[in-house]
Design a protein that fits this description.
The complex is a heterotetramer, with 2 copies of chain A (227 residues) and 2 copies of chain B (254 residues).
Chain A: H1 6-15, E1 22-25, E2 44-47, E3 51-55, E4 76-83, H2 86-94, E5 100-103, E6 107-109, E7 114-115, H3 131-137, E8 140-144, E9 156-157, E10 172-174, E11 178-183, E12 186-192, H4 198-205, E13 210-211, H5 214-218
Parallel strand pairs in A: 1-2, 1-5, 5-8, 6-9, 8-10, 12-13
Antiparallel strand pairs in A: 2-3, 3-4, 6-7, 10-11, 11-12
Helix pairs in contact in A: 2-3
Chain B: H1 9-12, E1 21-24, H2 34-43, E2 48-51, H3 62-67, E3 71-76, H4 85-92, E4 97-100, H5 103-115, E5 120-122, E6 136-139, E7 142-147, E8 152-162, E9 168-169, H6 178-184, E10 185-195, E11 215-218, E12 225-226, E13 229-230, H7 245-251
Parallel strand pairs in B: 1-2, 1-8, 2-3, 3-4, 8-10, 10-11
Antiparallel strand pairs in B: 5-7, 6-7, 8-9, 12-13
Helix pairs in contact in B: 5-6
Classes of the chains: A alpha/beta (227), B alpha/beta (254).
């Protein structure tokens, strides 16, 4: 494959986050995005356990167990930070005050339905955390995921078969192969990486895809990561 | 004189009855009232319903309470964690009932109990498995689920500093569920690092006014705090780093 | 009449407020109760505009326009005070956390219905403020009022004719003539002042009243204000 | 760099459109953003719906906005005050529409808008004239009314100190409706006594995080504050006492 690595993908997502945005990075891969936010831009990170203005991990020796992120990792607070309780924090989210939230996914449907909290396996211990709140809470919900599962199945689907996290909530899907916008007409290829075309992506996903620009309909000329 | 302080954690948790619903503050280990939970284990109440964001980490706190077989049901958002082996074992063995609630609905339902709201419509969880059995309603074109308050007989909360009226300030993200749980329980029991004189807390920073608190007990500063100042020298679980404590304290300038 | 003056009545109410109680004193006559709370007892006053631990009026020259009570009068804050916003303040009230609230009344019914916000006159400008929240919010709602209007009509009635503030919300009624508890069987005379008896109170109110103690059924022997 | 500060109150209220719903903070005069209201009068928007606890005091602030004929409707809990003559006159003349909302329902409906709650059941007002047209529901044996969020296009809020991210701290009971209104409006405009450096506000005391704020303008300390310290010397309306300012400042030791 000639697409983006996980780290390049994180950088690609970071490039779409404007200065001044209030952003929640979900646990797991989305936390990588923080490493690529330009240092000269002020972007305010929200962590749903009660902090706006989250900074990077502290040095060893300066870990503060009272100051953690939603993944329960030690973090720091930047000048301009504010603490609040859980009801206020999720009010912020549910009330639509966050600009962007970046989440992982098991599946995303053409309509933007998201499945990322349970594989529905019998005997699995269910845990949802803030996933359902995040899914419906931000002005834009970005999904960061691989296009295919390890078994080669598409994570972009006509209908999710895994239990849903939220209905019609995803705005955009970033994968190492392409970036897709969720539109009323289905998924639209916003940008294709490597040698991908709409046709090659349709073959991988089994979906009918729209093209954001004419050149995507034939071959992606652009270098991955540019926009 | 109003004096809600009690001398020890045993007195703080006295009278908690079998079958009680107990809210336990904290998000992971941050803000988890470990000393009060230890006292509750010692106290002996069983058949409890525990309302908390998580269902225990490692072998301490909520995990220890579960391991002792005191809990019938857990109401939480995220039981499964890398170190939730106690919960995992009991749940798989069918020895624990679980009510899974999305985290924001959990917080808002707890707040609703404290604020006297009969029920509310939340957009979270619409169209998912967790909507089953819940009334759905479309308001201004958006779908919502009817969510009911979660009340408790007792709340166990950890705060940073408190006074004899029960006013509390928290520290950083350890605030998490403390203020809303304190208001949602019939009896609220609080452990603080330090008790201070009445009037010593800034009235603008009091996140839990004493009206929501019944008992306060001082348990001493956490290892990463020294005389009210952050000194570090621990890992994210609060365990001392391998270096000697002296060098840790000395190195903690930030 | 041989009952209590307004000020004696305020003292009588104050005597029923135990140490440690969280209390909201409504605007108007109930604010007089604060003057009679024993100085050696700690009673925490709530004002719904965002303060617990309200203290007495400041001296002239030390008035702080940012620190007022629900009647928009200058007050002070005691050591142990806390400030909060209106949603938290009324959550405290609606959530049943206040022990006692003392309100004025136009009418109270036998069932404890309260009318104190509007006389329903045509052309009057309606204003409700926190009255309806206070009426349903405290564990005990005390009413402080005259037994009779200036025209000699009873304020205690079978059914309120003025617009209601709250339904079945009043616990106890303090008047200069007697103190009444609201019970499932109607109003019970808890204490009668001066020469009042249940019979004389029944005559004034036109209601059938219960007696809390046998001696009230004949003549009140006790001095007003004792208990 | 995020910089929500604007140079003057005219810039702060620029773009407010005719027909807007405008929330205005304050309880009586405490926390009323008088300088922003003056700028709004200057700016000229009309046909406004004003959401505020009161409907103006004396001839300044909300009263002045009403007197200018800019307001079509008032949503409030307590319009009638001893000094609400402007409202009284316009209301009696049939020139103002009034939606009367019990104060706690007003606060909770504003909070619901900011917190994304679709509607909620409140026990306040059940069985009264103000319940007319509202859905009633009995939950666990208690009667409630269904109450809907109140949103606004613009909120005008007065806080004590702010920074360029829009973080705010309030002062005493002037906090009142500020935090909930700031979260309930599409555009939130704030006047502060003083702008401070980013990082100068205690993150534990920030009652409105900057996420809820769009524009901040410094208007200078109130007369009863001198260099950040309370000095008194005014009446409850903020007007200087008759004594000379010097003696007032000197006498204000508490």
């Amino acid at each position: 494959m000639t697409g983006l690595s996980r780290d390049e993908l994180a950088r690609r997502i970071a490039a779409d986050i404007p200065e001044g945005a209030y952003v929640n990075l979900g646990i797991g891969a989305p936390t990588l995005v923080a490493n690529h936010l330009p240092e000269d831009l002020e972007i305010v990170l929200h962590t749903e356990n009660g902090l706006l203005g989250m900074g990077p991990a502290p040095e060893d020796g300066l870990i503060d167990p009272d100051l953690i992120n939603a993944g329960k990792q030690a973090v720091t607070a930047l000048p301009g930070a504010a603490y609040f309780h859980h009801a206020d924090s999720f009010g912020m989210m549910r009330g639509g005050h966050l600009d962007i939230c970046v989440l992982g996914a098991f599946q995303v449907s053409e309509r933007g339905d998201l499945a990322n909290w349970s594989t529905g396996e019998p005997g699995a211990i269910p845990a949802v955390g803030g996933a359902m709140d995040l899914a419906i809470g931000a002005k834009q919900v970005f999904v960061m995921t691989d296009l295919l599962t390890r078994d080669g199945a598409s994570k972009l689907v006509a209908e999710c078969t895994y239990p849903l996290t939220g209905v019609a909530c995803v705005s955009r899907i970033y994968t190492g192969d392409a970036v897709f916008d969720v539109t009323p007409e289905g998924l639209r290829v916003r940008e294709a990486f490597g040698e991908h075309t709409v046709a090659s992506l349709e073959e991988l996903t089994g979906l009918t895809l729209q093209a954001a620009a004419p050149e995507l309909a034939s071959a992606a000329e652009e270098e991955g990561g540019s926009r | 004189m109003i004096d809600k302080t009690v001398a020890g954690t045993a007195e703080a948790v006295a009278g908690i009855a079998d079958g009680s619903t107990v809210m336990i503050g904290g998000f992971g280990r941050a803000g988890q009232p470990v000393e009060l939970i230890d006292a509750l284990i010692e106290q002996g109440a069983g058949d409890l319903t525990v309302v908390s964001n998580n269902a225990g980490n490692g072998d301490v706190g909520i995990a220890a309470l579960l391991a002792e077989g005191r809990v019938r049901k857990v109401v939480c958002s995220f039981p499964r964690q890398h170190d939730s082996w106690v919960f995992d074992r009991l749940y798989r063995a069918g020895e624990l009932e679980l009510e899974l609630v999305p985290q924001g609905n959990l917080a808002e339902r707890i707040r609703a109990a404290g604020a006297g709201i009969g029920a509310f419509y939340s957009p979270t969880g619409v169209g998912t498995l967790l909507a089953e059995g819940k009334e759905e309603r479309t308001i201004d074109g958006r779908r919502y689920l009817l969510e009911h308050p979660i009340r408790a007989d007792v709340a166990l909360v950890a705060a940073y500093r408190g006074d004899r009226w029960g006013n509390l300030v928290y520290r950083e993200t350890a605030r998490n569920f403390g203020p809303i749980m304190a208001a949602a329980a019939t009896t609220t029991v609080v452990q603080v690092d330090e008790l201070v004189e009445l009037g010593a807390l800034d009235p603008e920073s009091v996140a839990t006014p004493g009206i929501h608190v019944d008992r306060v007990v001082a348990v001493g500063y956490r290892p990463w705090i020294h005389e009210g100042r952050f000194v570090g020298g621990v890992d994210v679980n609060g365990a001392p780093l391998e270096q000697s404590p002296e060098s840790s304290v000395a190195g903690a300038v930030r």
